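Researcher: Please predict.
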Amino acid sequence: MIHDRRTFLTTAIGAAAAARIAAQAPASPPVSPVPSTRDFSRLEAVQYPDPDIIALSPAFRRYIVGNTTIKRLHIGTLWAEGPAWNGNGQYLVWSDIPNNVQMRWINEDSRVTTFRNPSGYSNGNTFDYEGRQLSCEHGGRRVARYERDGTVTTIADKFQGKKLNSPNDIVVSPDGGIWFTDPFYGIRGNYEGFKGEQESKEAVYRVDGKSGQIAKVTDEVGQPNGLCFSPDYKKLYVADTGMPRDIKVWDVDGQTLRNGKRLVQLDIPGTSTPSAADGIRSDADGNIWAGARPGGQVIAPTGERIGMIRLPETCANVCFGGPRRNRLFMTASQSLYAVYVETTGAHIA
């Protein structure tokens, strides 16, 4: 009995001492959304690890490459969007919507060229399983496929006889299905397309790759923007930049969706200021990498926000690329950025 009492007192005293030490220890500094001061236009050294790659959870540390930094690969666009990696050609294509062009960054020598001019005020881009490029064009209010012989095929421009609004982002599935979002952003004015009348409710669509038949899979979104599949194609994620500005997820049931729910609603880390995901892509572990202020945010499949990449510009969209698919490309306002990560992209583009 005496031994038990001494053990209890020792434990209690130890716990009290630990509590005092914890109370006296300096608190962890709050997370800041402000990027470090650096000049991306110059070849100046940045100390490893990159100070703007932030682990918001220990779960993110495994994805940080400790001896690499964020690089600016190009500057000069008006509003950069829609990056997609072409594995055959070893290049990245992305859109500069207001300038009505698509740009290309070539992996071999880091050259940047104008890839397509005009581009139909294209926004999101991807490649199908035959290597053909698919683009969401604001100008023609359509999804277009660029064939190998130089012709252009309209994949979708109407639903039930009504014009689409302005297709925004696009992904493909192994069964040949083409899934895309259709908010109204491209018809609001003449900066990123042509001002026009809205004929269709904002929605997410699927086009059958064989029959060409278009189906509305959901309109339970305010402004559907970026979208991506889980690595096994069993879930579809959609970034909603309308209200309530969240990322939603559905179970994919063949050619339809079910069990829709919210995955996460973002703010700017370290503040209470609302943020929202624009473009999103999944990595091989099922994490969602999003273009969201203050640059990029990373969300686990559970909905927990685990990481942040701070950029000096607003990042619209992201994709994985490079020969090993382990480089994250970020289209951010006037620039194209990239950083190596310890994961790979889940899908082909």
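Model: The first strand starts at residue 53 and ends at 55.
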